[in-house]
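Hi R.,

As promised on Friday, here is the backbone we talked about, encoded as structure tokens. Could you run it through your design pipeline when you get a chance and send me back a sequence?
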């Protein structure tokens, strides 16, 4: 698939994709990332991309003309989604990233300053993407995140594709704890069940730890997920155990 990023600071992307899994995917031609300087699509000799907001106010606003021209020239067809990276958008999560990975091309517009002209939002973009409830100096870091998160769902980008299925959020829960060598590090030992060779017991342990971790760290996720009867039973056991420990005298 192809990512087209529109920005006024293309130099920021110089080395961000030069290593790791994304770089390998680029070299293999599994994904393509094109960065476009918004100034190349301006219509005036000064290559102005922003201006003061009507009605007054602090800061500058990105003008609509160069953004419209850029999208019209870059977009391969009308089915290509166009997203503005903005703190007001739909929050990027596991499912949204998986959904975006089904597209052949995605255009990402990096916001800056006080934002973009509202006509871009109302009449050009498919939607807005937010990567968290905080404000960045610009949409470029968010673009990195979107490309990385979405690329993981493109076939063959991740070497062991089954590992994606084990990621946190894949089935609505946080991932279970992971361990590697040494077996005993400063008295901190790896759980014995992981050496049992009994895959059913290991899977049961991992499911329990995953539920426990989600309940402890992200209980909101449990409200969005339909738990099986077995998972409800395990969760009740975890809560009972926790309550029992909290009731023990110091």
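Update: got your reply. Pasting your designed sequence below so it's all in one thread:
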């Amino acid at each position: 698939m192809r990512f087209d990023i529109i920005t006024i600071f293309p130099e920021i992307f110089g080395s961000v994709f030069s290593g790791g899994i994304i770089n390998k995917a680029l070299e293999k031609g599994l994904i393509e990332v094109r960065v476009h300087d918004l100034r190349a699509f301006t219509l005036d000799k000064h290559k102005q991309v922003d201006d003061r907001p009507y009605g007054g106010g602090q800061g500058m606003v990105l003008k609509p003309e160069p953004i419209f021209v850029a999208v019209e020239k870059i977009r391969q067809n009308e089915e290509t989604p166009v997203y503005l990276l903005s703190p007001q958008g739909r929050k990027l999560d596991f499912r949204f990233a998986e959904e975006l990975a089904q597209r052949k091309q995605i255009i990402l517009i990096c916001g800056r300053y006080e934002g973009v002209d509202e006509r871009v939002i109302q009449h050009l973009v498919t939607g807005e993407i937010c990567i968290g409830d905080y404000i960045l100096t610009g949409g470029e870091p968010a673009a990195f995140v979107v490309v990385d998160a979405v690329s993981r769902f493109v076939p063959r980008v991740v070497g062991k594709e089954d590992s994606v299925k084990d990621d946190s959020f894949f089935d609505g829960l946080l991932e279970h704890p992971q361990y590697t060598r040494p077996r005993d590090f400063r008295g901190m030992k790896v759980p014995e069940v992981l050496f049992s060779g009994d895959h059913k017991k290991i899977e049961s342990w991992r499911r329990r730890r995953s539920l426990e971790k989600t309940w402890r760290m992200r209980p909101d996720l449990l409200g969005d997920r339909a738990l099986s009867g077995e998972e409800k039973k395990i969760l009740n056991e975890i809560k009972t155990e926790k309550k029992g420990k909290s009731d023990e005298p110091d």
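One thing I noticed while checking it: Residues 184-247 form a domain with the Trp Operon Repressor; Chain A fold (CATH 1.10.1270.20).

Thanks again,
M.
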